Amino acid sequence: MHPAVNAIISVLLGIFTLVCIFPFIYVVIISFTSEESIVRNGFELIPKEWSIDAYSYLWSMKEQLFQSYGVTLIITIVGTVISVLMISFYSYAISRPQFKYRRFFTFLAFFTMLFSGGLVPTYIVVTQFLELKNTIWALILPLAMNAFYIIIMRTFFLKSVSESILESARIDGASEWRIFFQIVFPLSLPGLATIALFSTLGYWNDWFTALLYIDEPSLVPLQSLLMKIEANLEFMRQNVDVSLMQQSLFDTIPQESAKMAMVVIATLPIAVSYPFFQKYFISGLTIGGVKE
Amino acid sequence: MKRILGDLYKNRIWLLMVLPGTIWLLLFSYLPMFGQVLAFKKFRIHPDGFFASVMNSDWVGWDNFKYLFSTNDAFVITRNTILYNLVFIVLGLVAAVVTAILLSELVNKKLSKFYQTGMLFPHFISWVIGSYFVFTFLSTEFGLVNNVLGWFGKEPISWYSESKYWPFILIFMSLWKGIGYGSIVYLASIVGIDKTYYEAAMIDGASKWKQIKHVTLPMLKPLMIILTIMNIGRIFNSDFGLFYQVPRDSGALYSVTNVIDTYVYRGLMNLGDIGMSTAAGLYQSAVGFALVMITNYIVRKVDEESALF
């Protein structure tokens, strides 16, 4: 290709890449700007006055922060384990020719992709029938399955776990459970890793189920804490035990920079880790179409 | 009867495997589907629990729907939902394919990888974070855009109360979050194209542009069709976070930011109007279902290979 064309393409794509990551860099800069500087000059690209007040301010209310971090970690870990197990059992079973009712159960899952129960009936079922409101399970169970992943994994099992591999194990008298955990599971790691990562990301970034089902402050995950941060900064400030001593540290409450510091600490784990596991997301796209 | 029991017993291991998932599907998908009948009822909580509440609520026929469609809201939310989605589908497809082709043509493969990683970043963050990103630009007091306007002696704009800018902002943000992922989907497909096609084209003297037009694009066509059908089937659904978080739930912007999903949510949580918001949700599910079936039917007529099912 002509070098000039290549240069133009590089620049264009470079600009778009910058647009994608610039907001995060900008937020990091703002979080290190002194509050006075923000009030006087707004959010600047190169602040006149740097400061770590926002972070020391968040440190002074670390209880709620750690609590929310803990809630997010628990729902992410427990949720991912539950969904990977549930999805892989289900999709493995419906991918096996020996399973007489596989068509029925495939349809049972597939139909939920076509017609949904809707938000309000789901809300009523979760709050009034299952009575999960303000429990940790309200953050875990509603996100645990997804028909789309089942269909993807079913195609994956059909393609990558052929019956001929399992035949010899069956002849040796291994039980189906043993075959599943000792042969199928290791063979399917790429597919399972993809589902696990989709699921992890879904739980980590979830705020919607918390918005619906959680009022209790001790169960608020990180993303929802961030969402209600204006109200929460005020709330947490009133709950700082050593408020007098802490207050004297800050001439003004670093409200704006503290918000951005929260954004930074909620985003950082993802920002530093996704480049390492993005290849699974990409391979996940190619493992399964919907059709047999 | 005996045969059925025998079959069940023979399949017991597989049935046990699908059991947890089936319970989940029944509780979180099929029970709510049954709950959709509340669209035709006036919901009253009954002390004997969920089923008693649903069964004992009085039938009101189509009243909830009549009420929903008697207001201007039904029109506004349907219009917003469909128009935004149409723009997202068209621009999203074009932008993703163009970006994918550009990425594949880049000579420096290391640079291409770096760009891909950077472009994927928005895909991995939540709209809560995304809304703060937007806020750093659009905050009336502190935002970058108003600062820049200030340098040129222009008046600051109160972004979160001026609805006329929001269609553009929302479209921009949707593309911002989606292009990276979308283009990598297409890039994976471009990488998989057999190189001999390009070699043959080059021997025939085809220019780069001709190669893209006659090899790359035709090879991407099936994927473009499948992804577009799936998007058309979901044209009545919206990305809730984009329309709720990014405009910071600002009431002044509802005329251009309210979509069916946000309307149902607000009907439930702010107004507590179960009947009407269930009706709006059923309207969404039913039309969505019809759209998937119709699009798939048409695609199957035209090109059976590309149909979804």
H/E element string of chain A? Answer: HHHHHHHHHHHHHHHH
Estimate the strand proportion of chain B.
Answer: under 5%
CATH homologous superfamily caption of the domain at 62-239 in chain A: MetI-like
Supply the CATH architecture of the domain at 62-239 in chain A: Orthogonal Bundle
Main beta sheet of chain A, described? none
CATH class of the domain at 62-239 in chain A, anyone? Mainly Alpha
- Euclidean distance between termini CA atoms of chain A: 40 Å
Number of strands of chain B: 2
State the shape of chain A: globular
Structure, explained:
The complex is a heterodimer of chains A (292) and B (309). Helices cover 75% and strands 0% of the residues of chain A. By secondary structure, chain A is mainly α. Chain A has a domain of 178 residues: MetI-like fold, CATH 1.10.3720. In chain A, helix 4 crosses helix 5. The C terminus of chain A is likely disordered. Chain B has two domains: 60 residues, no CATH class; 236 residues, MetI-like (MetI-like fold, Orthogonal Bundle). A two-stranded antiparallel sheet of chain B has the order 1-2. In chain B, helix 4 packs across helix 15, helix 6 crosses helix 9 and helix 14 packs antiparallel against helix 15. The model of chain B has no long low-confidence stretch (mean pLDDT 92). Classes of the chains: A mainly alpha (292), B mainly alpha (309). Chains A and B meet through helix 1, helix 4, helix 5, helix 6 and helix 10 of A and helix 2, helix 3, helix 5, helix 6 and helix 7 of B.
Protein traits:
heterodimer, A: 292 residues, mainly alpha, MetI-like fold, globular, disordered C terminus, B: 309 residues, 2 domains, two-stranded antiparallel ribbon
What is the secondary structure topology, with strand pairs?
The complex is a heterodimer of chains A (292) and B (309).
Chain A: H1 3-31, H2 35-41, H3 53-60, H4 62-95, H5 102-114, H6 119-129, H7 137-140, H8 147-160, H9 163-171, H10 176-187, H11 189-204, H12 208-213, H13 222-227, H14 229-238, H15 243-249, H16 255-287
Chain B: H1 2-10, H2 12-35, E1 41-42, H3 50-56, E2 58-59, H4 63-70, H5 73-105, H6 109-124, H7 127-138, H8 144-151, H9 166-191, H10 195-203, H11 208-233, H12 240-244, H13 254-257, H14 260-269, H15 274-302
Antiparallel strand pairs in B: 1-2
Helix pairs in contact in B: 4-15, 5-9, 5-11, 6-9, 11-15, 14-15
